[in-house]
Design a protein that fits this description.
Layout: H1 2-21, H2 23-41, E1 46-50, H3 53-66, E2 78-80, H4 85-94, H5 100-108, E3 114-118, H6 125-136, E4 140-145, E5 158-161, H7 167-190
Helix pairs in contact: 1-7, 2-7, 3-7, 4-5, 5-6
Length: 203
């Protein structure tokens, strides 16, 4: 069992190292951080959605934007489309599960917003439909995926594709990059010296 622990940690580290070595991922993340900060400063917002573990990621990331990551600062405009049980169950019941996020983007989105769809396979039907709706409304589309990017690859203006086919390793890398994404938006919004402010450890 101890060997299993070491094997899985080594696999996680290897995936992270592959992400670190991929200059395109770093460049894309910086570009997405800048455009998201610019959108928020213009009165627009970030919308985020995913399924399963990626739904938890969506909520986690949005909490970092609205509350804080490590430093107290004004709240940043972001909405997770995975949290309203009445909307989710009504949409699933009346229109089908594939339209869960599409319907919310239609209601809450506006031109100039940013939509981040998270899917380890890149093929989640409800994320695909949400991306189509976002495109129709002039919302910038960003995909966090794995494998080869799946169908989302051609639907997103910006793609972060984790070089792995192992779901849990993709998700681990997504979470690390999501935290860094929030950091980038903070710095583009509040200035590069923002990182020199005293950090707060959450209880």
């Amino acid at each position: 069992m101890k060997e299993l622990v070491k094997k899985q940690l080594a696999q996680s580290i290897a995936t992270m190292q592959a992400v670190l070595a991929d200059e395109h991922i770093a460049d894309t993340l910086v570009s997405v951080g800048k455009l998201t900060a610019d959108a928020m400063k213009s009165g627009n917002k970030l919308l985020v959605a995913g399924n399963g573990g990626s739904a938890a990621d969506a909520q986690h990331l949005v909490a970092e934007f609205v509350v804080r990551l490590t430093v107290n600062r004004p709240a940043l405009r972001a909405i997770a489309l995975t949290t309203d049980s009445s909307i989710l169950t009504a949409t699933g019941n009346d229109f089908g599960y594939d339209r869960l996020f599409e319907r919310q983007i239609e209601a809450l989105g506006q031109s100039g917003d940013v939509f981040l769809g998270i899917s380890t396979s890149g093929n989640s039907p409800n994320i695909i439909k949400a991306l189509h709706q976002a495109q129709k409304m002039g919302i910038t589309t960003v995909g966090f995926t794995g494998n080869d990017g799946g169908q989302m690859q051609c639907l997103c203006s910006y793609n972060v594709v984790i070089p792995s086919a192992v779901t849990m390793n993709i998700q681990e890398s997504h979470l690390a990059l999501e935290h860094i994404f929030c950091m980038l938006v903070e710095r583009f919004t509040f200035g590069e010296d923002f990182e020199n402010k005293p950090q707060i450890l959450s209880e």
